[in-house]
Amino acid sequence: MKLRVLSAVAVAAVLLAACGGSDPADPRGELIDAPAAVGSTLAAAQIDGAAQAGGLHALAGAARCDVKVIRLNYRTAGVRQGETSNASGVLLLPTGPADTACATAAAPLVAYSRGTSVDKSRVMANAQDPETRILIAMLAAQGYAVVATDYLGYGASTYPYHPYLHADSEATSVIDSVRAARKAAAELGRKLSGKVMFTGFSQGGHASMAAQRAAERDYGNEFDVAAGAHVAGPYNLADALKDPQAIAGYQFFIPFLVTAWQKVYGNVYANAADVFKAPYASGIDNLLPAPNASYASLIVAGKVPYGMPNGTPDEARADLMQPAFVQTMRADDSAPISVAARKNTLLDWKPRGRVLLCGAAADPTIPPAVHQVPMRAHFAAQGVTVDSVDVDPDIQAAFGPVPTDPASAEYADYYGNYHDPHELLTCLVKARELFDRVR
Fold this sequence. Notes:
The structure is a single chain. The protein starts with 7 loop residues before the first helix and ends with a helix. It has 439 residues and is of the alpha/beta class. It has helices at residues 8-18, 44-53, 57-60, 101-104, 130-138, 167-187, 203-218, 237-240, 250-265, 295-300, 313-320, 323-331, 336-343, 372-381, 392-399, 409-438; strands at residues 37-42, 66-77, 84-95, 107-113, 145-149, 192-201, 224-231, 354-359, 387-390. It folds into 2 domains: 31-236 and 347-438, Rossmann fold; 246-343, no CATH class. Strand 4, helix 5 and strand 5 (145-149) form a beta-alpha-beta unit. It contains 16 helices and 9 strands.
């Protein structure tokens, strides 16, 4: 691109655009449903009671603040250049009596990215949602403002699909949720400190890291990024698709990823039957996410094969996938699926803010050896030391040792809960420790 001398007006326009959302013509982050809608206010005693009942209290500690649950519906970018859409989400605002710090202190803002959901109807502006309850108890009730997006294609979003594990649109959904949260807080007369922390779990670990990368790289004048705490994220998708070991949940995550990337890039496959075996190929293009779906309902309806606990991940892959496509993922670096995987791998940036990588060694869904370890090594090669934590000892201390019989119901139950919620909970403790140091 040739450099041109810009007029003063043009320079000003470029600077405004670089601030992201400062340009009046840029709708990203604008609230659609303004003024912000407060869905409910939870008293600290209610939060403590729910945390006690859900086994969260020992990890979260006593609630210091009441929490307002605020529904968001905001403008954001689509996948393609110039494409606009909307996304929904929630803002959790600490509050309390007018003369207390919970109501008056300028709160730091945590942008949280949730884990994979197959339910298109799911929204985070639901105080009974398991992840929302965790965020309320562990962060918002401790004085943090928290914003969590539902992503494109979920909840109130009119986008026609969810671009699953597409790093750029994950980042814009999260960044625009921060902008929306700031506007909503201002409407409600609540001051924020200006500091932003990014965190997320599973798919959300990928999204939160993509958001921190974009915030520091593209919007450095707009966001004061204090830290990022990324939990059990699939950062290294290029190598993950080559891994001969199938992961727990393969029959959900791989179809979601492959069909989403087909919609994003248009060249991953010509026909679903080239990728998936019968009967699963029929209808799989638009299967995920589905309204009011659950992992169990998709299996019972025969939309995907069994995996754990009724079979192994390798058996699920064998039942679902065409062997030739699996071999292509493993061996052909020039194949469109491999090119897409490299585009959405996050081993390509150097953080400026503090970074925590958190995972658990025995995670059967997102193995740290495939994702967290290479991510830390990449940062080290850039001369950046990050905190990298294995919480497997914490999980075993809190939830018991690993059962010894892989064929037992106890073993299946243990690993059915290992990634979510055990890893999420123990890593959020570490995330809050980091945020407390930089807030």
